[in-house]
Design a protein that fits this description.
93 residues, three-stranded antiparallel β-sheet, 1 helix, 8 strands, 5% helix, 42% strand
């Protein structure tokens, strides 16, 4: 709970977005939270990225509380590291 209270995330979304919608991305991050970690060396954080503009990609996340932050997805109960995530035009991630 202590980590969740002090977590501040910085997102870096970059890329040309591609596709027919060439509008600039308009990103907003909400509902960020960090469940209480079970160990001392790893934690997970979650958030929603809403995009009211053109398509983009989430390529990294940083935190002043962590030396390293990696992106992961979970499918069929298995966590997998990801290089980036698509943030669709007028959609959410």
């Amino acid at each position: 709970a202590l980590l969740a209270g002090g977590l501040a995330l910085t997102l870096t979304a970059c890329g040309d977005g591609g596709g027919a919608d060439d509008a600039k991305p308009a990103l907003k991050v909400t509902t960020g939270y960090v469940p209480q970690p079970v160990g001392h060396d790893m934690a997970a954080g979650f958030f929603v990225v809403t995009n009211k503009g053109g398509a983009d990609r989430l390529t990294s996340v940083t935190s002043p509380l962590a030396a390293e932050v990696t992106l992961h997805s979970t499918k069929d109960g298995e966590m997998r590291e990801q290089d980036s995530f698509a943030v669709p035009a007028h959609g959410r991630l």
